[in-house]
Amino acid sequence: MLNYKQELAKKLSNMTNIDVNELESYIEIPPNSELGDYSFPCFRLAKELKKAPPVIANEIKENLGKEEWLEKVEAVGGYLNIFVNKNYMAQNVLEEIIKNKENYGRSNLGEGKKIVIDYSAPNIAKPFHIGHLRSTVIGGALYKMYQFLGYEVIGINHLGDWGMGICRTLAGYKMWKDEYDFSKNPIQSILAIYVRYNQIEKNDPDFKKYAVEELKKLEDGDEETTKLWKWIIKISLEDYQKIYDLIGCKFDSYNGEAFYNDKMDRVIKELEEKNLLVESEGAKVVMMDEDIPPCIILTSAGTTIYATRDLAALLYRIDTYHFDKCLYLVASEQSLHFKQVFETLSKMGYEEYAKRCEHIPFGLILEKDGFTKR
Ligand code: ARG
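Above: the input entities. Below: the structure tokens describing the complete assembly.
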């Protein structure tokens, strides 16, 4: 497509004998399109041409000549306001689209650059929440756009495949598996078990202990429990895949929370080395500069949490991908979490990488009663 800014700079350069790149860098896009599509501040040339800016503007206007793409030029104060011919432009764009077809707009802007996109990330054995669908759709679109612009894109599905959620399902499965049919639509039975377990726990908080036991077994590598856990992940992924196929989105890695189980020690070690861990109400936290709550790294029970895992994931992604950008497609309710994680990463000595991280938030979806549900 015709680059109007460049064309304009070329014309100005022919008239003034000033370097074309220098002139191009002076061209602005007016805040109000009624003032033109481009504007050129002539005071930039006043010294060199030894003339007052309004005089320069008028002279350029008179001598600019006609071009098919140029609709009109106005000299206002010391500015030249340039209007592009929209009919010409529309025809030009359409011709380009017809010529390049699905490659219209493709570029090599991102050549040699790597971008990690963390998206979808549903929680295994829990229903695929509408928020996850939103993350999937936006992340999937960004994935394709960045690829189109020449970036190397790494799509990561940071699965919620560890923790109490999946352990409730494990405990419930062991108790009630004979009451359900897993032959046709196993994910539905898995979800039913999860919901049933939660309902009982709601009325009897003590019931949680069975899920805690399962977590312990998983942590200790108990064979039967690990096998069952893997099976639940497998059937959950098979179900999600239907949605991914429908949308046409793709992941290069399914490294979820569990993947970082053996990578948490490094986070604690590096934080300790930098003297960043502070004791607070029994927990170990990193204090933040801004007026926001500290980032909890170890709970008072000594266990790692979501933020610890995200830090482990970041260290891993830095080592593995040396990314130029790392985007997180997660609902706005986690904005604080990402602020804390990025600031902690920066304090750990990875300032450059912390600057390359970005949380791309989206709003919550309200149910009929006005509340979001998870
Ligand atoms: N599984 C999480 C949730 O449903 C989202 C994970 C997003 N990615 C991340 N690296 N924290 O809330």
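Note for the figure: The domain at 4-87 is CATH 3.30.1360.70 (Gyrase A; domain 2).
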